[in-house]
Amino acid sequence: MPATKPCAHSSPSAVRRQVADFYSRYPYPPPAIVTRYQRPAFALERLNLRLAAAGRPPLPPNLRIWAPGGGTTLPVQLALHFPSASILATDICARSLQIAAKIARSLQLTNIDFRHEDLLDSAYRGQFHLIDCAGVLNHVARPADGFRAIRRALHPSGVANLWVYNTRQRWLSDAWQSALALLGATQSATQTNDRWTLARHLVDWARLQPNWRRTREALGAIHPSIDPVNTADALIHPREISFTLAQLWSLLARSGLHFLAWREDHAWDPLNTPGLPAPLRARIATLPPLERFQLIEALAEEDAPYFDLFAVRANPPHSPAPVLPETWRPAFNPSIEFINLRGARAVSSHHMPVLRRTEDSWAAYQNGDAREKSGLWLPLTPPQARLLEQADGTRTVPELLREPSSEPRRALAAFLHRAASSPVALLA
Ligand SMILES: C[S@@+](CC[C@H](N)C(=O)[O-])C[C@H]1O[C@@H](n2cnc3c(N)ncnc32)[C@H](O)[C@@H]1O
User: Fold this and answer.
1) Which of 154, 245, 296, 350 is 20 to 30 A from 255, comparing alpha carbons?
2) Contact criterion met (CB below 8 Å) for 153 and 122
3) Pairing, β 112-116 against β 86-91
4) Which fold has domain 25-167+242-312?
């Protein structure tokens, strides 16, 4: 019987070699667009606001950031968003590090150190205020060791932003891995071309099968000729393990990390969903957080939100502050610049208290959002739009909410909070 799980029996050093070879061939992500804010403190303030809402102290301006498995672009994005931070970018793929370093030079960024290093071999202790580890823990030989390395490296009051694959969302990758294994296309470097060719033939073939609706739909976003890197990442990765919520919680617990919040908290809260019948609401309100999230996982299936979370070292407080600090003065970022890395020049710069939705800005926003993971699309009601336009940093939240409005004060306060964690707000 051929193994249908890639690398299922490989040693850690074999996994590292195969993964590093894969990313040397397909450095990830293909550099596209990064963003920079005109107000240098904006990203840190936004993050601190998010942490304050979860009952955590703010991170200092001169914070130390680590991006393990940073790839080609994330370290650059972090350096642009946190200009007063010092950033360490590590990766097992030398080519990705070179690409990121070259982009950093072209943008005159001097606050990133690059290091060729395996996350599992790292020996950092208690030193990073922010660890941004996206799309890496799924590709290591022993994920539990990766979580532990992050826990060790985290400053006692620091926060780790972890992004890992959700099993239900990765079924197409699993299907292709199984099919390739059944066809005898193994992981050896000499076979990468064979795997790629077979994977492409499988895509063409599956697209013609009238009864394979779900597979055909999932393949809709896959374009092997136009976008080989993302196609390879989705279909022929040598090592990918995805998790269920229960597995993710167990990995966090075993490493000594505590779940603090989802990046998109509202999307994981069933009580936030429209049309919830009162008896269900009452029942769900009694559930502990994990079970509420599992309800979303079970019902939304592959459409559940991403596993993109903040984790901390110490047990977070049980009832985080639900609203903004009274004294907080929201000031929305007046300008966001989209930098096209393919030409390393700014493609567009929008000056806005509120970015109006036009064809151009929407396209630019979507590209930017894909790169920075933290955007938020806000279809605004007129009272919400008025509120955002008035949030210029001169008035506190209670002052802003003082004006009579057709929307309840509580709802507007919650909206303000959500908007504040977004780099841009769009008027629908
Ligand atoms: C999917 S890419 C993600 C890149 C980046 N974090 C991002 O979000 O854009 C995965 C990256 O992790 C790196 N990687 C995989 N296993 C690693 C390990 N054990 N230690 C360090 N980096 C690793 C790969 O070389 C690759 O650059």
Assistant:
1) 296
2) yes
3) parallel
4) Rossmann fold (3.40.50)
pTM of the model: 0.84
The preferred substitution site among 16, 26, 28 for testing ligand 1, maximizing ligand atoms within 8 Å of CB, is: 28
CA 26 to ligand 1 center in whole angstroms:
12
Mean pLDDT on 155-181: 94
Give distance in angstroms: CA of 146 to centre of ligand 1: 12
Q: Which residue's alpha carbon is at the smallest distance from atom 27 of ligand 1?
A: 71
Least confident of 26-30, 107-111, 155-159, 319-323: 319-323
Span from the CA of 17 to the centroid of ligand 1 (angstroms)? 13
List the chain domain ranges: 25-167+242-312, 172-235
Q: How far is the CA of 69 from the centre of ligand 1 (A)?
A: 3
| Amino acid at residue number 235 | L
Residue 28 has pLDDT above 90, yes or no: yes
Residue 119 phi/psi, 5-degree rounding, is: -55, -40
Name which of 32, 26, 136 is nearest 347 in CA terms. Answer: 32
On whether the CB atoms of residues 202 and 179 are closer than 8 A, the answer is yes
Give pLDDT tens digits for 240-286. 999 999 999 999 999 999 999 998 888 899 998 889 999 999 999 99
